[in-house]
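Final report, closing paragraph on structural work. Over the funding period we assembled a curated collection of sequence-structure pairs, and we close with a single example.
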Amino acid sequence: MPWGQVIELLEKLDDAELRDWYSAKDVAHGWSRPVLAHQIKTQLHLREGAARPTSRTLWNAPIPNSLSRSPRIRSRSSSSPSTGTPPSDSSRIGWSSAS
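Its predicted structure, as stored:
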């Protein structure tokens, strides 16, 4: 990271954790000094939801089993699951065919 960006971080941010966060983003994305200054001014850390971590942060928490499985995709076929036949027009709109 160029010295000018280090100075930018030191002058604009008092919080060491935020300085570390912005410096990691800067290195990862190759920002110029004006881009880094803009990201700090517009509070990128808040827009990305990366505000200061707490002791109860979820960043390092394990992924719950319900989220780690791939989602099940339901078939969008128009046939009845039990008979394999398409439903009648009256059953699709909820009307009875008997009058």
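The radius of gyration is 27 Å. The mean pLDDT is 73. We thank the funder for supporting this effort.
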